Amino acid sequence: METDEAPRLLPFQLQFDKPVVSPIKIAEWNPEKDLLAMVTEDSKILLHRFNWQRLWTISPGRCITSLCWRPDGKAIAVGLEDGFVSLHDVENGKLLRSVKSHSAAVVCLHWEENGQEVGDSSSNVPIYEDRTSRFFPSAPRVPRLPGVVGGDAGFLDGEDSFQELSNSSHQRFNILCSGDKDGSVCFSIFGIFLIGKINIHKFSVCTPSLDNKATHRLLNASIHKVVLSKDLCHLTLTCSGEMVEDRVEITDKRAIGKGLLGLHCLVLDTSIFLKRKNELHQVAQQASNIEELIEVIRASLSVSSKQWSDAMRTFHERFDPLCTMIIDHGLDSIPQEEFLSLLCGARTSPPIHQFLVNSLGEVGLKRVAKVVCSAGKELQLVVLDHLQPAAEIIGFRMGELRGLSRWRARFKGIGLDEALMNHATDKAGMLLVQVERFMMVLSSVVQQFSNFFSWLLKCIKMLMSELNDQLIPCNSELVVLFLRYLYGQDPIQLLLTASEVVEIDPGTMDRVKELVQFGGFSDCEYLRRTLAEEFQLMESGFKEAILMPFTAISKRVLCNDFLPLFPIPSSPVSYVPTTISYYKDTLDVASSHDNLVDYISFRIPDESFSDISNCIGILRGLMHDLRNGEKGCNSLEAVLLCIPDGYHCVDLSLYKESQIVLLLNETTGTSETSGNACMMIVDAIGLPFASISRFTSPNHWKLQGLKDSIVYLQMETEKVRSIPHFVIAPLAVSASRGVACVFAARKRALVYILEEDEDEVSDAE
Q: Is the bond preceding residue 730 a cis peptide, omega within 30 degrees?
């Protein structure tokens, strides 16, 4: 039987109300899966399923300042206070890549992908194929010291996760944007290859007024949020700082405080990423893999140097006492001469007899031989399994980049220089030559050490009258060579040290110069360089070549416009709820293609304006206004929304279809952690936006002109859900999944379903 009055239905369904281990300062939903990544106050990353099952917890050991997801949801980017941006695998939280791209705290991250596949047939550009896998096996991994557990050596884990991360052939073209508190923004292709960097302090924008034209720029700006448009053509960012006229010198302290100190919005032109995305993809594909292989070689040289130096330390600890014994017996000789006398059978001096029989002994000799020969074999494995394959693949990928640089019509525009790539490719080739040389020297040294130890063992047996036929035969000529060239020298460590110089006799250099006449190379000094030095030259040549695209792209990112939003106190800015998103322009039906409209929403602090309080602002069309500026159109619009009496805004988030989610706390609570809250959804499309003219003097705050047209929100007319907790930021909303996570001050997390088609529950339930 139906009742006369139906129970009032709640607009959102509460799915979970769970405790959290620590206060949460950052929370982001996975764009593709029902996963929520959270950062606690003590900088631990927690990953939970929608049913609140925790998958993993990691702690970078440094302060986390920002977090975002890769568009496909398979990796997490984490911004750190020391300027690093690290990438973690969603499956287990494992570190995939860590890059220091900033010199200050990375306070915001945004990862956006283009709608088209890289090399899509509709772009009329041939699909790019990475041919490396045709000719080479899988790239080598970073070597580890024997007995070291993964992660203890300071290197990234060498699983297949990074290979998936760097294998961008089947990914949509995407860019990771990161902003720091000093005003710098970095752009990384696929999150792993840094392709550009700008600083908003260097931008100056012309702001035409009624009387004259003036240019303005920012001082002491700190970025709050960066968002790249879905077509990669524009970057919208908000920052706090002071806007002054460009003619004011930065060193003029009298000018500080005379401009507009507040929160500003900037729009950057990043269309170079869309126009040159295929070229940038090809360069990033090769260069990012080269960077990873360079780290493999660096680790290989470090591991090899440590292993060999440890082996030589053991050798010298056991053999250096022979010098003291020779001096104690009053002999004017050196160990090499004493060993040669023993080899020739002329005499066995007392110090040699004492050293071999009493000091070193058969057991001691076998231990030293095992340490040195094992180290030699380990070095050979490091070279064969890691260093040499990495150098070969680097040479091939350098050649691919060299070929691209010769396609000037396409790649000169992004700064790929043919001369620099030729130089870098030559250095990669010389590194391969040095690797072959090192391998030959290593094999010879290990063989001579082994032969020397076999001869010494035979001598010890002879001195102790224990000779037998089971001893390993030795070569007397190799013993002589060892005593002459290796006993007091270390050619292996010499080649592994960058600061050393290899001595080459003049005759050998003359023969090398004669070979130059036959072509193939012109570097006659490579024999004087060590393997480590050759690696440094190759690395510097590659960085010099790849710096040109970085510089070229950085110069192509321009500031189109900036708009002052509201004033702020001169003291350090506290958290200002701000959100930026892009939606398809559904009102532009005449357009043949999908235009994007930018929505910027923010809470206006009560102290900003004396006649505007408890309000939020919504700005739309700033990017669209730039496209229509030449036609005389004005689509820049804004609206001020007043929060209902008795509430204040804690956080906000733009939702899908131009909706905005507001998180409100009651102002009648007896303490900072007591009281109730509510969540409200406002449809921005139906709001009475008012036009804002760009062609006025920037010496005033434009939003203050809307004080007479404030829209007052009513609890009765909007979708509102009451929350029986005092809530805190952040508000985590997933537009793709239709859910929101709210955090209570008393360490609880509440997950609500926002979709209209979800089951609704009544107050009685």
A: yes
